[in-house]
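Backbone shape codes:
***
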Amino acid sequence: MADDLMDGSEVDGDEFPVVDGMVDPWDVLARREEQFAGRKGLPGKFQKQEDVDPDLDLLINVGTRPGVGCRRTIFEKCFDNSAADTDHLECNMEMAEGCDCCHVKKPAICCDLHNPTEFLSYTSTVTKQCHTAQRSRMPAYTKQQHDYSLENALLDWREAKTAEVYGWVALSCHGPSLIMTDATLNFVVDYAHHDKIHTAENLRRETGWTRSNQFGDEVIGLIQLHMPPCPSPFVSTPLRSNGIALNTPSVNQTLASPSSVVKQCNKCSACRQVGHNARNKACPKHQSNTAAEGKENVTLLATS
């Protein structure tokens, strides 16, 4: 109860009167008021601009403050909750116990420190929110024809879906944003242009649309219908041919393959015949052939 005492004879380095091995909580509260009363004036360099009220601080942290051990004691001492304890005697002085209506009765349950099991239903657990995945960075771009086609298809789809789910009256009063807002629709077009949306999970992560699990497959179908297929990164580009380019007027005429190119034969610069050059002895105008023609005795000496 409020009059319960805690063990110990020293609180925050200050000694208090000890009665039967117990510390009086009223002395603890009085000493704390004296300590906080001296903390006035301009705030220092490392002091906060606004100090927490000492009574409120003690009420919140009474479980960790030695020497008190009761939350109801803080209410009675710091917030004058016990000021009306004698009002019932002044209300009806003819009765020794005072007025029954004004008499403040002590509750059977004191506080959460003395009766913790009675306050379990009031405890609140705050769950830590999980961080959502970040969106992909979207560079600036210029809308093309297929982007406008997808945008018009999404506008028609969300209008028809709003009328289907909520009725024509809701569509007329609130508009098609009940299904998909304008900002979400623009996100869908932008991320679809950069090929970032393939599944309903991609749609939810990139756009933050809350109805992705319900209508995500329908939006994915519209994206696949109106957006051009992404070019494959494994497309092979033919190498440029090493053959001789033919200057022909026809544009569609293909170049000859290297295997069909005929090897160019040598042409003699002296006799203009094909198959040898001017240094070859097979040439009629080679030096060895012309020198033999000018000597008359060459054949005679050879025969003799």
Observations:
- The chain has eleven helices and five strands.
